[in-house]
Amino acid sequence: MKITEVNTYAVRPRWGFVEIVTDDGFTGWGEPVLEGHTKAVLASVQEMADELYGRDPLHIEDIWTTLYRAGFYRGGGVLMSAIAGIDQALWDIKGKYYGAPVYELLGGACRSRMKVYRWIGGDRPSDVKDAALRKKEEGFRAVKMNATEELQMIDSYEKIDAVLERTAAVREACGKYFGIAIDFHGRVHRPMAKILAKKLEEFDPMFIEEPVLCEHMEAFSEIAACCNIPIAAGERLYTKYDFRRLLSAGGVSIVQPDLSHAGGITEVRKIAAMAEAYDVALAPHCPLGPVALASCFQVDACSYNAVIQEQSMGIHYNVGRSVLDYVYNKEDFCFEDGFASLPRLPGIGAEINRDLVVSENETPHTWKNPVWRHEDGSVAEW
What we know:
It contains 12 helices and 15 strands. It has 382 residues and is of the alpha/beta class. The protein folds into 2 domains: 3-101, Enolase-like, N-terminal domain (Enolase-like, domain 1, 2-Layer Sandwich), CATH 3.30.390; 105-345, Enolase-like C-terminal domain (TIM Barrel), CATH 3.20.20. Strands 5-6-7-8-9-10-11 form a 7-stranded parallel beta sheet, covered by helices on one side. α5 packs parallel to α6. The longest helix has 22 residues, at 77-98. The model has no long low-confidence stretch (mean pLDDT 97).
């Protein structure tokens, strides 16, 4: 079996797909995307395609290592996202070749289902009380919301109070034991992050996410000392080496590698095992499409430390298209009682509507994140 085609597609709302085809008719799908840089990632996939043509797609570890190590420059969001999508597609082929879900090839499942959560509130969080209550009524046991709008390094306590009021409203509406994850989104700097984390403690959040950016990962232990709330981080890290530094720095209770950014299934499986050795939980980042989500479930299924899975159905970013639009097996992406069933199909577990993907690619998206500014005109973290 040899690889004969590597095709890339940009699809709404902000995703990219890669389709890898073999000479004996197997097709694998991956989702290589770095939000706001889709063109760069897909171009990198095509650059890497020269290393794929004629290769046996079952030799995943060797292909992955070649793509990563044979290039003099390595790592970073664009290159690792390209490798991630290719890796997902290769695992999709391998699972189909052996007639099994990917997690069966990784040692088998250690759970029967996976807890998931829903997003509420949008970029500038509002109406979170009613939204959270609706999600609870739909059967979800947890939600996540952005904590703040833009915050300067030292900012007004009025903005802090607004976060506390929203969190209090969700806690009051949904009860003491409903999961509330609060995403600081890297918008908060160390001085305000310490204040906000300490004040949020009374509401017993499930976790706080990216209280500061991972480029300041040495601050996580300092923030952790200010509160008894688990800290989650890692969506903007791309290799096992990045996560080794994060885990060594301490303070983080949950790692959040992204299966479409951090080298795909092959690399994230290693990151998950490394985190387990530190007694740190896994909650893969995934505000993306169906292949990325299915890939997350494959790793969740066989990773003991996986605790909850992000997914993008209903998220504010999904304008024009959403997850279920691109799959025929929609029933495999439905949730019951706040849990997802494990993938059942051979391969990744997403039966892709190729005709729709090709059609969307005729007018490729140009999604970019907004540029925010503070009142004084300086650029704010989004």
